[in-house]
């Protein structure tokens, strides 16, 4: 027995388990400590007792019962609340993790399990050469997807061997700082802006990333698509409720992986969580552009987002005959011609996908006279018990409102009706082959949404009016500098859809080495035979056949952004005072309440009108206040309410980014907006 006077009456024994690889050395150690001993002192005592000469710098104490790291080494045991019953584990902070990327490839790398997820994702993106890491996050696979995978593995006769790209020797993985991941405009381009290949040998010296040129090509190029059988075995959401399950697994950005139950060598999904792709630049973003393209491609193939048959064929043409073929032959192509590069750079500058990320509007343009549109359009009002009433009227679009009159002559008087489009939902209703150019407007009214259709005569008229409606829904007028690029974007998408059957294009679809079923969702493989699909995709391909590789990917992303459901993440919620469940769609600029049975939007609330939001953590209820004394409250049924809270705060944080901020992120602001006070 040791006398208490020797150690002092306040000392006690603390059990610490050491997570090391030396089998001949014990793993459990009893330390005699006092409450005023700091965490750093505990670790020092422990290392002295272990007597294994190795680098312990990456080790830290993990408190098993409380599920938290003891990282503040100057704090005492008393301040941390550690007592004799505590189970502490002395383990590495950086551990191996398998990440499934948007292109469905799996990489294995060392990640910090003690940093908050926001910081861990930033480090991962440095390794993978992806800028703007704040747009991505980590997602646990939904239970339905895991069940389908287990069933597939059970039915498969051969053992499934996954092709994993190992990046475990990276500087960031070892806990060192890597390349900044953000490049200034004066830095040397590291990718060819046309083909997306690494520019000469710059990748080896420009970046601290462990990506060799071979690894870079795995991440920056699209690879042959999977077989129709593999596609059929993958989980596909059928209903809005199924889509809501996909978004339930987002990890909390303000807590570490270990705190959220992630274990070493677990598999997580790395995905673009926020659909505001800021400052896309082909010179630096070959990997980022390809991964966004791949996330869009899989969302369309697995029907996570709805699109028309015409749009599906365009997507198939871009990915099938174009991106896949160019990716396979890109190494053989020589894109060094200087004049060609300049022309394509000019074309790509129009393609930069900025959504509402930066303050792009020019103040001088905004204070000039606001332009207006005036033209003959047809108005369609759906009626429940009769056919739709379609009538021609003289329409005038000014500011953010549309007024219509009996004819042009009566436009000086009072309109028949004036529709304020601020906060409305704008949905394209287009079939280029059938010469149908419609705009569906869902305008918020006291008891829901007022549905109105406008029918245009041709592409040009449609593009001008559609662009005006889209801007008005966001509270912007046609004086805004984004109006003309929006018109251009709509016209270019319509041009891709506008193809005609030519005997030359479809003379021998079998001569192309590809399976058309790999490039469309299952719904269309069931509807058409293989030859019919190949012929139809070849028709659509005529309009995109001259595009370089990166432009084809950017066009694909742009077309994806044009879909009505783009950027919506769904959650099942119960609104305060309601007796039934609804679906809440969270987008980059608005929240939408959707009927869970019909899928119809009920109400839209814009972030621009939001005054404040908070969470009652006791009853897990999100409450939001908007302008004009509008307030809503709901509880989330399909996920933790923290996920929706973080989505709203995250989108508001991303809207504060600008290109002249010296490209640094205010991480503290992100955590203030998204962290919550549980």
Automatic annotation (TrEMBL):
SMART domains: B41 (SM00295), PH (SM00233). InterPro entries: Band_41_domain, FERM_2, FERM_central, FERM_CS, Kindlin/fermitin, Kindlin_2_N, PH-like_dom_sf, PH_domain. PROSITE patterns: FERM_1 (PS00660), PH_DOMAIN (PS50003). GO terms for cellular component: cell projection; focal adhesion. One of its GO terms (biological process) is integrin-mediated signaling pathway. Belongs to the kindlin family. This is FERM1 protein. It comes from Nyctibius bracteatus (Rufous potoo). The lineage of its organism: Eukaryota, Metazoa, Chordata, Craniata, Vertebrata. The gene is Fermt1.
């Amino acid at each position: 027995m040791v006398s208490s006077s020797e150690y002092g009456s306040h000392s006690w024994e603390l059990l610490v388990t050491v997570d090391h690889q030396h089998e001949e050395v014990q793993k459990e150690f009893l330390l005699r400590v006092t409450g005023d001993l700091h965490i750093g002192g505990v670790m020092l005592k422990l290392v002295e007792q272990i007597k294994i000469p190795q680098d312990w710098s990456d080790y830290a104490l993990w408190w098993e019962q409380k599920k938290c790291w003891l990282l503040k080494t100057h704090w005492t045991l008393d301040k941390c609340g550690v007592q004799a019953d505590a189970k502490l584990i002395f383990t590495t902070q950086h551990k191996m993790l398998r990440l499934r990327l948007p292109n469905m490839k799996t990489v294995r790398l060392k990640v910090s399990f003690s940093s908050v997820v926001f910081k861990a994702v930033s480090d991962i993106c440095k390794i993978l050469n992806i800028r703007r890491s704040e747009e991505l996050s980590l997602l646990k696979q939904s239970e339905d997807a895991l069940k389908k995978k287990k069933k597939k593995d059970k039915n498969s006769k051969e053992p499934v061997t996954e092709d994993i790209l190992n990046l475990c020797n990276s500087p960031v993985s070892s806990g060192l700082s890597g390349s900044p991941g953000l490049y200034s405009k004066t830095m040397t381009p590291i990718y060819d802006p046309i083909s997306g290949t690494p520019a000469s040998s710059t990748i080896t010296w420009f970046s601290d990333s462990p990506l060799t040129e071979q690894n870079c090509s795995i991440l920056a190029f699209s690879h042959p698509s999977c077989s129709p059988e593999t596609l059929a075995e993958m989980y596909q959401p059928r209903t809005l409720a199924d889509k809501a399950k996909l978004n339930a697994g987002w990890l909390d950005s303000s807590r570490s992986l270990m705190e959220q139950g992630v274990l070493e060598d677990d598999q997580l999904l790395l995905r673009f969580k926020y659909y505001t792709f800021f400052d896309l630049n082909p010179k630096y973003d070959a990997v980022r552009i390809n991964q966004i393209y791949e996330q869009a491609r899989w969302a369309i193939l697995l029907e996570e987002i709805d699109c028309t048959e015409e749009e599906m064929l365009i997507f198939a043409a871009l990915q099938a005959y174009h991106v896949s073929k160019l990716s396979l032959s890109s190494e053989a192509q020589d894109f060094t011609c200087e004049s060609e590069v300049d022309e394509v750079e000019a074309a790509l500058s129009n393609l930069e996908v900025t959504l509402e990320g930066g303050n792009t509007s020019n103040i001088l343009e905004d204070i000039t006279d606001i332009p207006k549109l005036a033209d003959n359009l047809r108005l369609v009002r759906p009626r429940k018990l009769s056919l739709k009433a379609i009538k021609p009227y003289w329409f005038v679009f000014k500011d953010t409102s549309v007024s219509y009159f009996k004819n042009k002559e009566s436009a000086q008087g009072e309109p028949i009706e004036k529709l304020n489009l601020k906060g409305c939902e704008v949905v394209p209703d287009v079939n280029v082959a059938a010469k149908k150019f419609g705009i569906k407007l869902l305008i918020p009214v006291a008891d829901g949404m007022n549905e109105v259709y406008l029918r245009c005569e041709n592409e040009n008229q449609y593009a001008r009016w559609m662009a005006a409606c889209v801007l008005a829904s966001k509270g912007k007028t046609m004086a805004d500098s984004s109006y003309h690029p929006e018109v251009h974007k709509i016209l270019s998408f319509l041009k891709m859809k506008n193809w005609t059957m030519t005997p030359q294009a479809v003379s021998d679809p079998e001569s192309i080495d590809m399976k058309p079923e790999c490039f469309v969702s299952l719904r269309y493989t069931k509807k058409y035979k293989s030859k019919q699909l190949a012929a139809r995709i070849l028709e659509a391909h005529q309009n995109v056949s001259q595009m370089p590789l990166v432009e084809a990917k950017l066009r694909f992303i742009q077309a994806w952004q044009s879909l009505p459901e783009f950027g919506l993440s769904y959650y099942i919620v119960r609104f305060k005072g309601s007796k039934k469940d609804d679906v809440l769609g969270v987008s980059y600029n608005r929240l939408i309440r959707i009927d869970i049975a019909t899928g119809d939007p009920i109400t839209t609330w814009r972030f621009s009108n939001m005054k404040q939001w908070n969470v009652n953590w006791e009853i897990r209820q999100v409450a939001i206040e908007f302008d004009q004394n509008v307030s809503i409250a709901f509880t989330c049924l399909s996920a933790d309410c923290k996920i929706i809270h973080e989505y709203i705060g995250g989108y508001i944080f991303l809207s504060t980014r600008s290109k002249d901020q010296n490209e640094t992120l205010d991480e503290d602001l992100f955590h203030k907006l998204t962290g919550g006070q549980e």
